[in-house]
Design a protein that fits this description.
Blueprint lengths: L5 H29 L5 H12 L5 E2 L2 H5 L5 H35 L6 H29 L2 E2 L4
Parallel strand pairs: 1-2
Helix pairs in contact: 1-4, 1-5, 4-5
Length: 148
């Protein structure tokens, strides 16, 4: 039986990974595309990942919830998930603050410092997503695929 303290943490992790993280990374990709930053390579990678998705991968919350997990590994990785969720909270707050500042200044008049804060928060979220995917891959013993 799954540890009752581990289940809410696992659910919160999955909710972030397949919800908020996808939206933030999509916004980042769209903003970069509008600035003509080299996004074509990452778009190709995400299309290849979605096309090459096998039965040995998890691509949604529903799939994750219906997949058997290793309880021993979950017990060992729960502290790592908690740590990553705290980092996620920090970066999400920074991201939201930067978005608010941008809305105050307007898109064209935003100081570079605020844009840099936004980029740092997005990079932090991207890093947390990568670490969450690898940690969840250990728990589920399957690849975690986030369609961003």
């Amino acid at each position: 039986m799954i540890d009752p303290t581990g289940l809410p943490i696992l659910l919160k992790t999955l909710d972030f990974l397949f919800g908020e993280a996808q939206k933030i990374l999509q916004e980042r990709r769209e903003r970069r595309a509008s600035k003509n930053i080299n996004v074509q390579d990452s778009n190709k990678d995400s299309h290849q990942a979605s096309n090459n998705r096998s039965s040995e991968s998890i691509g949604s919350i529903n799939e994750a919830m219906s997949t058997q997990i290793s309880e021993n590994i979950l017990k060992n990785e729960i502290s790592e998930l908690e740590h990553l969720l705290k980092l996620k909270d920090t970066y999400s707050k920074r991201y939201q603050l930067a978005k608010e500042k941008i809305s105050i200044y307007g898109t064209l008049d935003t100081p570079y410092k605020v844009l840099h804060e936004l980029e740092e928060a997005e990079e932090g979220i991207e890093d947390v997503v990568t670490k969450l995917k690898s940690t969840l891959a250990k728990i589920y013993n399957k690849e975690i695929v986030v369609n961003n």
